[in-house]
Amino acid sequence: MSDRLSVGILGATGIVGQRLIQLLERHPWFEVKWLAASERSAGQPYREAARWRLKTPMPESVAGMVISPASPEGAPRIVFASLDGAIARELEPQFAEAGCAVISNSSALRMQPDVPLVIPEINADHLRLIEAQAWRKKSRGFVVTNSNCSAMGLALALAPIHKHFGLEKVFVVTMQAVSGAGYPGVASLDILGNVIPYIAQEEEKMEAETPKMLGSVNGSVAVPADFVMSAQCNRVAVEDGHTESVSVKLRKPATADEIIAAWRDYRGVPQDKRLPSAPEQPIVYDCAPDRPQPRFDADRGAGMAVSVGRLRPCPLLDWKFTVLSHNTIRGAAGAALLNAELLKAQGYFE
Amino acid sequence: MSDRLSVGILGATGIVGQRLIQLLERHPWFEVKWLAASERSAGQPYREAARWRLKTPMPESVAGMVISPASPEGAPRIVFASLDGAIARELEPQFAEAGCAVISNSSALRMQPDVPLVIPEINADHLRLIEAQAWRKKSRGFVVTNSNCSAMGLALALAPIHKHFGLEKVFVVTMQAVSGAGYPGVASLDILGNVIPYIAQEEEKMEAETPKMLGSVNGSVAVPADFVMSAQCNRVAVEDGHTESVSVKLRKPATADEIIAAWRDYRGVPQDKRLPSAPEQPIVYDCAPDRPQPRFDADRGAGMAVSVGRLRPCPLLDWKFTVLSHNTIRGAAGAALLNAELLKAQGYFE
Amino acid sequence: MSDRLSVGILGATGIVGQRLIQLLERHPWFEVKWLAASERSAGQPYREAARWRLKTPMPESVAGMVISPASPEGAPRIVFASLDGAIARELEPQFAEAGCAVISNSSALRMQPDVPLVIPEINADHLRLIEAQAWRKKSRGFVVTNSNCSAMGLALALAPIHKHFGLEKVFVVTMQAVSGAGYPGVASLDILGNVIPYIAQEEEKMEAETPKMLGSVNGSVAVPADFVMSAQCNRVAVEDGHTESVSVKLRKPATADEIIAAWRDYRGVPQDKRLPSAPEQPIVYDCAPDRPQPRFDADRGAGMAVSVGRLRPCPLLDWKFTVLSHNTIRGAAGAALLNAELLKAQGYFE
Amino acid sequence: MSDRLSVGILGATGIVGQRLIQLLERHPWFEVKWLAASERSAGQPYREAARWRLKTPMPESVAGMVISPASPEGAPRIVFASLDGAIARELEPQFAEAGCAVISNSSALRMQPDVPLVIPEINADHLRLIEAQAWRKKSRGFVVTNSNCSAMGLALALAPIHKHFGLEKVFVVTMQAVSGAGYPGVASLDILGNVIPYIAQEEEKMEAETPKMLGSVNGSVAVPADFVMSAQCNRVAVEDGHTESVSVKLRKPATADEIIAAWRDYRGVPQDKRLPSAPEQPIVYDCAPDRPQPRFDADRGAGMAVSVGRLRPCPLLDWKFTVLSHNTIRGAAGAALLNAELLKAQGYFE
To answer: Is A311 at the interface with chain B, CB within 8 A?
Structure first.
């Protein structure tokens, strides 16, 4: 008999739900035992309810699993949630209230001051916000979130810079992959040979979530880092991998070599504790003049490493560079999974 | 007999040369009478030397024209030049020396202080630099240039802002079409489903050329406008149309309505003099939340109008917005043609 | 006051409805006076109900027009219909019953023996089936249809061959553009960098509709042409323009020159009567070795001409060649419009 | 010390050369010890001479290896060759003459009657043609070839059908990936949003090579299989994976179930002898209605398995179906490698 922990997935049929199933297929600690989705899908076997969009085949272990309704009855203790914002706002508190550890990829509760918004390499210590959550006190349930896919790669690339030199200003323009919009998501007639200079609410999320992740915890609330940030978000005809052109102003002077060293040497709790999904080196600097690129670099570190390149002086701020990360792995499903591994390693599932 | 002025094209087989031929097909003032290209092509009829890459058919009038060697002998007075930088640096002075009016799309001489870098709506008055050119004095030949394709759309969008409110800082990230790299240019294996975060020398050109065009003339030299600019350039899988995410800091406060009015009301010499290739309205602001987009907006004003959209406050500077322009029409061939029309209207061909 | 005939569009918000509006914008004979769509859109102005996906702007004349419910009350005599099959099967007879001339792009009634399936160049004479329709007898209403977008280009390319040499066998493999699936239609995640070797019901439609159009009328029923046909349909990442690889076996021997001449000289009623949307030359043979291509050739003849190329012997049948046609113009909206023009020219609207 | 056999690669910098290096990185039998390329690259370390276009990083073991001139001096006994046709025609005989076992992916010698054109699952027995080669007699050198990338997938899909039911006629239309044209290969301006209905010499190669591989050996010459074949080849905007729409006429009747069983049960020498690069199941039938697709299926069996789908009756011949195979793995580098493994297993390197 398996001694892996049972986990459930709320929103199992979507692109992020599929990635979670893929990443959990042979996971040493967790085992998918419960899948939930919208009413329309409930009662159907997963293979019929989901339109599988990944390159590896749908795992046999979930193909025949019957989709449960999206309610806490029958759900396991640990529930990954990947839901549309409005639905998450309603359902996630219900699950936490019922005693579930909700590891959420949804935007609904991310900016709530007592909900940790965590990238384990950066702010594992924010988990202690959990203890302040009303749900926790009542039922031992809680909610932990990861950020928007476009904020994730950026925050990782900024973290060592912020740690060593202090960020004062951050400018970012994104070129985001279509998988970030889910399935069916972006219509082909909208994006073939085109750029869409708009993603609803994306700039607001980036500008709010990045400082929260790079900030601190003061008692029972998260305090955002003190830098100003401006984001512009675009959709491009790429399948997986968000590319970001970034410029930063620092509080302390730094040379290119110092910044590159800060990236290359960056390690965090996931590396120290050897969490199963942790990439060996979370940030990889590529010194080729034309990298990183989504086609070649999105899958680095099994999609969990962030690629950085083209560090050069910025005439306006201090330094500019390009960041790339896999938006549905490090930017969504893998992020949630790494959060779950961190929670387990720190005893939150006991 | 035609009373149109004879013109020649140096670099006639490239993508920009093709666009020039297309735009000149039924031009009221100019008539293509001479085509020149590299030694390899010289002596061949144009239809055999050029791999025609435009959607309209190759004009009959040039199809049988024999390619001349790239030397001033036999060239008409007016010569459009679209050459690689290194070759242009050698050839363009030869043609000017020989008495030709060289209307250049090449980068070689753009930043030379006595060579005007002109967008007729913005800085038609820079043409008077011509009088200071040594060529002019010697043979009445001269060189006038237009900017890089990515600087062109940006400069046009910035011009009314700079005029009314004064620019202090400009931040731009480009997403550039493959036609900007010529033909064969970008390999399909490099760009399908991909973003390339690098275009050689493009950022340097944007940062140097934009202030020159928005600057002034002091005696016999061009003086760049006094703002700081930072550019990051990316290639995306789009055929035609460069999209740019821009943020600006102004010297005087401006409301969104004032900026939009400045764009909409912007007119220049080409509109006043009704130059044949001038768009009625050079800058079009689109208030849809997700525009401009290359597929839908690049051809606006027959490719000569610049589209702007998404004006919104910038947390870091003052305002951010998106600019789109057709890179081989307004950004190259159409730019050169409008320069030629301006020169004619101002008597420089007499 | 306009003396143009009032026309309505059933299914006005879809891609084909949009193309109809675009093609009718300055039509000499017809004027759009009535737009209908699904219940969800009824009551809204067109500019709000439709997500306009064409490169030319939405005509001012329709932008403010309020969408009517999809019922014959208030509809003009002439109604273009572009509806999903199931809905068309219910609605089109209602409109015909109520006295409307229904010019349909839908698949519902195409194969009904007393409904003409018409390409005006090929089988204008099939219109006499109208007289046999029960609707016609009752209310003077009737239904005329055009074929599936993939059958249209093929039928036009086959028509002169069939006329001069007789078809015995036809093999066709299509590579179809995404606009053929409507909007939102094909998800970008399904087609970027991909081929989908399946389009529901498309092969069946091609195999049934092509022989009907190339067939004859016997009394009150259409009799399909006597050739065997096999179709395989694929979707590719192209915006507009279906490319088809075709092979044919003929009943009489033909040389390449004879076939090319048959294509080049092909004319029909639309050319004789100079119908407003008729291309001067309906079939254009391009002798370049690598043409036709969707990017360069789909818009030929304003999207109404079919391009053919690469005629060469087939080791298995007699001849093979490539056909290209614009799927939403000649293949849908333009086809319906040409049918309407034919009907008017032949007095069916009196 | 390694007891792996030393191998060399002629044409090491091209796309197929890169794939060979990738596939050989941790090969149990072979070790890359010698790289050769054109004069321009000779003398440079591989990392500088090659523009690496694969997703996995360039192996450290070859990055510093200096490129040799393309001549037999210093070459190891076993040489993979992936050269342009004209160069191959000159060089491959020189290497064979000098005693090398030339495993060629080039087209030059494929159709020479005494040169085996081998897919190990299909016609391993054709290797005995080697003994008749003049080179063999003189120096023990020989040449073995694999087919064109588009013929490979087709031949594999046809092999079990031909074996069990006999082929009489084969019709195929291809939709080929850009990687098949090498690097830089297809210009992005030619293929973005486009289809090119022409690949030079590709149809001729398919029509000649497929019957040779499915044929027999009579004494010292290969005798092609006795079926008629017609091919039409198109290029589409796909990175890797050729999709083919196929129709066949059989000599003996077969049901769909029988054909699917023939595919599923098909095994050959590579499976029997467990060659390192042999896929467990060389042909995979997918019963989903819209598969195979390049994005999802090209990598099946590490790129060595061919995917088949959509088997259905053909109104013209007997059966139609879709075939997909990875064009640079099973269709080129992997094919050559499997041939080398077969040669070793059968003692040809002793």
So the answer is: no
Across D46-73, average pLDDT: 95
Which residue among the candidates C27, C149, C162, C326 is catalytic per the annotation? Answer: C149
B246 to A300, B151, B170, B178, B308: CA distances (angstroms) = 30, 12, 7, 20, 10
D193 touches chain A (CB under 8 A): yes
- Find tokens 């093709």 and name the residue: B18
Q: What angle do CA C212, C216, C218 make, to 5 degrees?
A: 115
Subunit contact A186:C190, Cβ cutoff 8 A: no
DSSP D287-324: -STT---HHHHTTGGGGTSEEEEEEEE-SSSSEEEEEE
Residue C100 has a CB neighbour count (10 Å cut-off) of 25
Q: Could you give the CA distance from residue D268 to residue D281 in angstroms, rounded to a whole number?
A: 10
Residue numbers in chain C where pLDDT is lower than 70: 1-2
Task: Pull the structure tokens for residue B209.
Answer: 């050329």
Chain A CB within 8 Å of residue B299 CB: no
Q: For the segment B265-324, what is each residue's pLDDT rounded down to a tens digit?
A: 999 999 999 999 999 999 999 999 999 999 999 999 999 999 999 999 999 999 999 999
Could you give the dihedral angle defined by the CA atoms of residues C241, C246, C248 and C254, in that order, rounded to the nearest 10 degrees? Answer: 70
Residues of B in contact with C239 (CB under 8 A): 295
User: Nearest CB to B299: which of C55, C239, C295?
Assistant: C55
Both ends of chain D: CA-CA distance in Å?
20
pLDDT score recorded for residue C2? 67
C170: phi > 0 → left, psi -120 to 50 → alpha, else beta; which?
A: beta
E strand map for chain A: 5-10, 30-36, 78-81, 101-104, 142-145, 167-176, 216-218, 221-223, 228-235, 242-250, 283-286, 306-313, 319-325
Q: pTM of the prediction?
A: 0.96
Write the pLDDT tens digit of every residue in B139-187: 999 999 999 999 999 999 999 999 999 999 999 999 999 999 999 999 9
The C-alpha atoms of residue D125 and residue D111 are separated, in whole angstroms, by 17
CB atoms inside a 10 Å sphere around CB B273: 16
Query: Across-strand partners of C173?
Result: C232, C245
Note the pLDDT of residue B85.
87
- Taking residue C281's Cβ as centre, other Cβ atoms within 10 Å add up to 17
Catalytic residues of B: 149, 242
Distance of CA D271 to the CA centre of its chain: 17
Q: What are B88-142's pLDDT values in tens digits?
A: 999 999 999 999 999 999 999 999 999 999 999 999 999 999 999 999 999 999 9
B174 to chain A, minimum CA–CA distance in Å?
9
The tokens for A4 are: 């892996």
* D192–chain A Cβ distance below 8 A for any pair: yes
Q: How far apart are CA B226 and CA B162, in angstroms?
A: 10
Query: With an 8 Å Cβ cutoff, are A237 and B193 in contact?
Result: yes
- The partner residue sitting opposite B55, judged by closest CB among C55, C192, C299, is C299
Which residue in C183, C192, C193 is closest to A189 by CB distance?
A: C183
Across the interface, whether the CB atoms of C175 and D195 are under 8 A apart is answered yes
For the cut 70, the answer to whether the pLDDT of residue D92 exceeds it is: yes
Which residues of A are annotated as catalytic?
149, 242
What's the CA gap between C284 and C279, in Å, rounded?
10
CA distance C90 to chain A (A): 27
- The C-alpha atoms of residue A333 and residue A19 are separated, in whole angstroms, by 6
- Measured distance CA(C87)–CA(B317) in Å, rounded: 53
Yes or no, beta carbons of C290 and D317 under 8 Å apart: no
Average pLDDT of B202-226? Answer: 97
Q: How far is CA D102 from CA C269, D11, D135, D144, in A?
A: 63, 13, 11, 6
The SS3 call for residue D341 is helix
The percentage of residues in chain D with a pLDDT greater than 90, rounded to a whole number, is 98
The DSSP bridge partners found for residue B285 are: B308
